[in-house]
Design brief:
It is built from 11 helices and 10 strands. It has 305 residues and is an alpha/beta fold. It has 2 domains: 203 residues, Spore Coat Polysaccharide Biosynthesis Protein SpsA, Chain A (Alpha-Beta Complex); 68 residues, no CATH class. Strands 1, 2, 3, 4, 5, 6, 7, 8, 9 and 10 form a 10-stranded mixed sheet that branches. Strand 1, helix 1 and strand 2 form a beta-alpha-beta unit. The mean pLDDT is 88.
Length: 305
């Protein structure tokens, strides 16, 4: 069994170094390590020179967001012959026996029709807090609960499922690409499972409490555009009733609360939030479930091939 590690990085050289140190010290080594440098502007490119003998490094010439990096990286791993791929973002720290335990878990069960495996993701800032979201399918509790969808950080992908289902939607850029993709795997017959006995550490930055429309710094509110656009695109295509409810919430309720409670730029944030949401009625992302020509066009654009 060939298990690859896919490392996604963007402007986090310090946490990347910690993640790579733990990855390279695994008791059961990854068969191959693929690193996607998402056009970092810090010293990441210099740091990656230290790993030229340990990994296949791809330096993208434009930031494609997490969605684009996973799109490109998963495709590379499948082409190189991976059976399973562990998503190691630059803020994910693996326990020293993680790859060994993943391999033992796969071999001990009939997981040929399992699309993804999701461990516990524990915040390094608060050991009692679990990061990530788990959406269980209706079921009787089992050793490995079935999942409808999960986040990418720390996720292990079945390469066979990728070949049959396709790749994530790179145009999502950030947010909801993981939910859409893992639920799409389920819809194609590849369930996800949760492994409560396995865990990874999440060395993410500490986040401010509260909703972004109320507390996010104004210079970072642009990220909310992707969250709104992608959420409503995802719901419109897969959960239309929920889409209608969320649309009303985004167009009316959130702008009203923003106007009443946000302390700075309230009117501007409220207007943009409503506008971005209302726009989804007439235009959402065109979902392309990936074909070979699309992949080649992506490589030509972001690798200059």
């Amino acid at each position: 069994m060939k298990i690859f590690a896919l490392v996604i990085t963007y402007n986090r050289s310090k946490s990347l170094e910690k993640a790579m140190k733990r990855l390279l010290s695994q008791k059961r080594k990854a068969d191959e390590i693929v690193i996607i440098n998402n056009c970092s502007t810090d010293n990441t490119s210099e740091l990656l020179k230290n790993y030229q003998n340990d990994a296949h490094i791809f330096n993208l010439n434009q930031n494609t967001g997490g969605a684009g990096a996973y799109y490109f990286g998963l495709n590379q791993c499948v082409k190189m012959g991976a059976d399973w791929i562990i998503g190691v973002e630059d803020d994910i720290i693996l326990p020293k026996n993680h790859i060994l335990h993943i391999e033992q878990t796969i071999k001990s069960q009939n997981f040929s029709e399992i699309g993804f495996i999701y461990p516990k993701v524990i915040s390094i800032h608060d050991r009692y807090k679990l990061d990530g979201f788990l959406y269980y399918k209706n079921q009787i509790t089992t050793e490995y609960p079935r999942l409808l969808k999960a986040q990418f950080a720390g996720l292990s992908f079945n390469a066979n499922a990728i070949k049959k289902v396709g790749l994530p939607i790179h145009s999502f850029f950030i947010y909801y690409d993981d939910w859409e993709y893992t639920e799409r795997m389920n819809r194609h017959g590849f369930e996800g499972i949760h492994t409560p006995n396995l865990y990874v550490w999440h060395n993410d930055v500490k986040r401010s409490d509260g909703s972004p429309y109320l507390h996010a710094p104004y210079n970072g509110i642009w990220k909310s555009y992707y969250g709104i656009r992608n959420e409503l695109t995802y719901l419109k295509n897969h959960h239309f009733k929920t889409y209608c409810f969320q649309l009303m919430k985004h167009v009316f309720w959130i702008p009203l609360i923003t106007l009443l409670k946000r302390k700075d730029h309230a009117a501007n944030v409220a207007f943009n939030w409503a506008f971005w949401s209302f726009k989804s009625i007439f235009k959402t992302l065109q979902i392309d479930y990936v074909n070979d020509s699309n992949t080649k066009a992506f490589e030509k654009r972001f690798l200059g091939k």
